[in-house]
Amino acid sequence: MDSIKVGLLGFGTIGTGVIRVLQKNADLLQQRLGKKLELAKVVDLDITTDRGVQLEAGLLSTDVEDIISNPDVDIAIELIGGYEPAKSFILKAIANGKHIVTANKALMALHGQEILVAAEENGVEVMFEAAVGGGIPVISAIKENLCANDFSNVLGILNGTCNYILTEMTENGSDFAPVLKDAQELGYAEADPTFDIEGVDTAHKIALLAALCFGTKVDFDKVYTEGITNVAAIDIQFATQMGYKIKLLAIGKNLGDQIEVRVHPTMIPDSYQLSEVDGVFNAVRLSGDFLGPALLYGSGAGMDATASAVMGDVMAIGRDMISGAKRRTPIMGYCSDQIDELPIKPMSDIISRYYLRFTVVDAPGVLAQISGILGKYDISIQSMIQPERHAADAVPIVIMTHEAKEDNINKALAEIDQLKIVQEPTRLIRVETNLG
């Protein structure tokens, strides 16, 4: 074996970054691997647009078979994204004996088990470090360096678009809509930002992290997902006043016989490290029985950071190929026959503290009516903010609860929102202080 040949499926932003790494650091990669990494083929539907990198004649193709059925290609890098045709391409490449590197978190979150089985049957590797956290090496940390730990929870700020928007709203007192527009103009948000701002991108990532940490299959359809579109500037102001920051938090908890996997705006104390993760940066907080808490922080997206992660996986597979190692590390961190099927705890059953903002008429007895209904459902008040009366007809009342059951909160709010004194639907944000 004189060289290890790589085929690249997808010549977009990340694919361009991968080629840049291969070209700029060719000598460094060879020194660290012991063999040359050779780009054998680049496949994309568009092979005419200038990406700012020079390729040798004959490398570009529009025919995917030039990679997935090419006997000279050792490692196929999938950077197409989405479910199809990416899944079909990967499965065929696996059937043809290709090792796989992918950055496709959506595909791995929904179809990872099918890909895992196919890889085992064909004796190949599948690695996906770039699928979570961009350049943060969290997946390899869980599978390798920290694998002696029993993880109790994994928390993450996993979407740079949402984190940028919430940071700008916090620092400048801005509303959501204009900050989103600015993020799009700066290239931090897509023209259609739905997957980001509605929390779907983050949910894909926490589903993968929970599966890796807890050794279980995760049914993505049961991951509670709530985005940031309803977070208002006034909520951020009250959070700051009470010593909290609002983040789109991905939460995974191992409860023994079941797990929690959820994504939603969350208030966390401003004294916690996670609250200091601002702008487009990402962070993952792991809690292991011997490790204790550890925070991994870095660039969560972008050409260079993601390409770095992709090439790290390519190098890891290349080293295994050279040494003769075969499937040295299980794809999902656990031996496949040891992967459990723990159920996801229903959101109605979770226990949390809650921030509640009521918009009510400015009249005597309002608080008594609200607190009476909360008490009826075993919800106790920890603190309250009631701004001084103004001329306006409607005023906010903010209540921070002690721990309560989500189902009780929902029932109480349904009853409270029917009161004539309530002018708008109550705003709820969960509060996370018990990080383990």
From TrEMBL:
Keywords: Amino-acid biosynthesis, Methionine biosynthesis, NADP, Oxidoreductase, Threonine biosynthesis. NADPH binds at residue 105. Gene3D superfamilies: 3.30.70.260, Dihydrodipicolinate Reductase, domain 2, NAD(P)-binding Rossmann-like Domain. One of its GO terms (biological process) is methionine biosynthetic process. NADP(+) binds at residues 9-16. The keyword NADP applies. GO terms for molecular function: homoserine dehydrogenase activity; NADP binding. The active site is at 205 (proton donor). Pathway: Amino-acid biosynthesis; L-threonine biosynthesis; L-threonine from L-aspartate: step 3/5; Amino-acid biosynthesis; L-methionine biosynthesis via de novo pathway; L-homoserine from L-aspartate: step 3/3. The keyword Cell inner membrane does not apply. Pfam families: ACT, Homoserine_dh, NAD_binding_3. PROSITE patterns: ACT, HOMOSER_DHGENASE. Residues 355-430 form the ACT domain. Belongs to the homoserine dehydrogenase family. This is Homoserine dehydrogenase. It comes from Malonomonas rubra DSM 5091. The lineage of its organism: Bacteria, Pseudomonadati, Thermodesulfobacteriota, Desulfuromonadia, Desulfuromonadales.
